[in-house]
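Reading a protein record of the kind used here takes only a little practice. Think of the row as the fold of the chain written in a discrete alphabet. With that in mind, consider the following protein and its fold in token form:
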Amino acid sequence: MMDTMRRYLTELGNQGIILRMRIKELFRDMEQLEESILRDYSDKAANVKKILSGISFEGIIDMESLSRLLFEISPDTPNMPKGYRILSKLNLTDREIKALILEFNNLNEILAASDEGLYNTLKSKTPSFRKELDNLKEQILVGKKI
């Protein structure tokens, strides 16, 4: 879709340049967000991205088929997020995020982890991680966009 839009914007000339700047603002972090969401719910994010790019509108509407196609599970089966998207909002490196997910498997387990369990992975960052996590929970409860 973005390729088609880029082609049309190029054809528009100067007005296309202005529109391209506006679109960049709107979709600034969209690719990173998409990648984080796919990594949260699938072990094969690259494959899921390819499938989604080739699926029709009717295919997206059929939740049963879409769930089985993308995640290889029924839509009735709970699929817990691993936590990439939420953890990337905190002051953690990619390596620390991966280590947390490897250790605890999903976001719910990370949230329920004891300080000792977190210390094994994060070492001295554990208190600041807890504080950031509490602030993030508070923002979510208040309804702020994260």
